[in-house]
Specification:
Blueprint lengths: L22 E2 L3 E3 L2 E13 L8 E10 L7 E6 L7 E4 L2 E2 L3 E5 L6 E5 L4 E18 L9 E12 L4 E3 L20 E3 L1 H6 L30 E4 L5 H9 L3 H7 L12 E5 L2 E7 L9 E4 L11 H10 L3 E2 L2 H9 L1 E2 L2 E2 L15 E2 L22 E2 L20 H4 L15 E4 L38 E4 L50 E3 L2
Length: 512
């Protein structure tokens, strides 16, 4: 069997010049080293303003050609010198390879200060380590190299809450007031404590004090630039064994030619292209729109993909930090009812339908201030809003740090909320690349169901009836939600009847 590759790439279309194309070539294996090329557009590493950079998170799956053929997570060396980035056999001056301390993957990061632009083809060589779970490796093993674009959110103080005149929907605020609360180094070091320290009522925050081990957002972390894409979700399904797939679909996969849908509705269509053999051979899934964010996710689905990819869920504190940001480490002053792009301007709608998968990249479309997909019932749109070289943050719908679609498109699922839920045991522990026998996340401290310890943030493509859901500090779902719970978010039946909440998606972060 030959080595294989899954290539992830996201397109930010205004015209062909402004495409964020992440491309990864087929890998070559030799002596426990995997070599491939990577390139992407619109990269940056800047020291002023947001003072941050983007990067690509790379992780590897491996499959033996004999035995049960289950995919496992391929760990890499934790020694930076064991890996390399080259251009024409010469050490790259454009990017460097930074392995994670746990060996789950590597970051490919831009070198230099105040550099912006496309990253041309870089030859990456990764020294492999053990596998998890352990298998006897061979030279004929298959590999999947998967990349996800990330954005670094640097350490620094910031505000939670936006100072609206009342703590609408349980919004964050300083103790006993409606003023925003500043998260500082001292607060992160000591913990935020009881809910009364950051909300007007104990019932709208965590039921137990939040300790220093809880990610309040002060410390730096990487955040996915885009919401979880259908293409990445399909790769997750395709590395599960038969029993894990059947568990995620809540029932057996029929051995028949008719496609079995994990999710089926307009722009969300994930289905089998080859059915499995009962309890033996896994099915093969595909999707219609790999570049459109995945909808119809309950909390268990999202958490499983994040564990599988070596990431973790983000907290609602980290959500507000990623949107609002700071200025050189000093907290930015919040704006009441502000959107993630830093103002109160909102232009929801279909944007000339320019984001669907079948449009021409040569067409130039209008650019809108306050661009947000929240006014169309037809579904989510391609990740990344159209822009030009002169577009500002508001026109591209970007957060302070350059993270896309934190409002609209599909909801962000975060750790947080209130109404008696205890999520104080959640920490910065990242996923290890391995899911349970039923295809679920198995990291200690992570919430296990959407109705307990999680909150929906950022609104979605159907949020035209309550635009406040789109604002950075809105906590309308502080009491939890049935929309992303296990019990009210079943997949489709085999005939494709929609039973999931198609507006729910999410993204992950990684503590570095």
């Amino acid at each position: 069997m030959k080595n294989i590759i899954f290539t992830v790439f996201v397109l930010l279309f205004a015209n062909s010049l402004f495409a964020n194309n992440l491309a990864i070539s087929a890998p070559v294996y030799s002596a426990e080293t995997l070599t491939f090329t990577v390139s992407w557009d619109n990269s940056w590493n800047i020291s002023t303003g947001p003072a941050n950079h983007d990067a690509v998170w790379i992780f590897i799956k491996r499959q033996k050609c004999t035995g049960n053929n289950n995919w496992v997570h391929q760990l890499v060396s934790t020694t930076a010198g064991d890996h390399s980035a080259k251009v024409s056999a010469v050490t790259s001056t454009i990017v460097s390879v930074i392995p994670s301390a746990d060996g789950v993957g590597v970051f490919i990061k831009r070198i230099g200060t105040n550099v912006v632009g496309n990253v041309g083809s870089q030859t990456i060589s990764l020294k492999l380590a053990s596998t998890n779970p352990s298998i006897t490796t061979t030279t004929s093993d298959n590999f999947k190299v998967i990349g996800i674009e990330m954005v670094y959110v640097p350490q620094g103080e910031f505000y939670i809450g936006d100072g609206r005149t009342t703590a609408l929907n349980g919004a964050f605020c300083d103790a006993g007031t409606s003023s925003p609360k500043k998260i500082t180094s001292a607060i992160q070091s000591s913990g935020l404590g009881a809910a009364s320290n950051y909300t007007l009522s104990n019932t709208t925050g965590c039921s137990m004090p939040l300790p220093a081990t809880f990610p309040l957002g002060y410390n730096g972390y990487y955040c996915m630039k885009y919401e979880l894409l259908q293409g990445v979700f399909v790769e997750y399904l395709n590395t599960l064994n038969y029993d894990q797939q059947a568990s995620r679909l809540r029932g057996p996969l029929p051995n028949q030619a008719t496609p079995v849908y994990f999710y089926n509705w307009s722009s969300f269509s994930v289905y089998t292209t080859a059915t499995g053999t009962y309890n033996t051979k896994a099915a093969i899934f595909s999707c219609n729109y790999p570049y459109i964010p995945m909808g119809g996710l309950n909390w268990q689905d999202l958490a499983a993909v994040l564990d599988w990819s070596g990431l973790r869920p983000m907290t609602e504190f980290e959500y507000e930090k990623a949107c609002r940001g700071n200025n050189g480490g000093t907290a930015n002053t919040p704006i009441a009812f502000e959107y993630p792009w830093g103002n109160t301007t909102l232009n929801g709608g279909n944007f000339d339908n320019r984001y669907w998968a079948d449009f021409s990249s040569t067409i130039v479309y209008n650019i809108y201030e306050g661009a947000c997909r929240n006014w169309d019932d037809n579904g989510a749109i391609r990740a990344g809003f159209a822009a030009s070289s002169n577009s500002n943050r508001s026109q591209s719908g970007a957060t302070y740090y350059g993270i896309m679609e934190m409002a609209g498109n599909v909801n962000e699922q975060c750790v947080g909320g209130g109404a008696g839920y205890d999520y104080s045991g959640f920490t910065t522990t990242n996923g290890d690349g391995v899911v349970s026998a039923t295809g679920l996340a198995n990291v200690t401290g992570w919430p296990t169901d959407g109705g307990v310890g999680t909150i929906l943030r950022g609104g979605n493509f159907r949020t035209y009836w309550n635009i406040y859901d789109l604002t950075v500090s809105d906590r309308s779902y502080y009491s939890g939600s049935n929309y992303n719970s296990y019990y009210n978010s079943y997949p489709n039946d085999q005939n494709g009847n929609n039973a999931r909440s198609r507006e729910i998606g999410g993204r992950g972060v990684r503590t570095y």
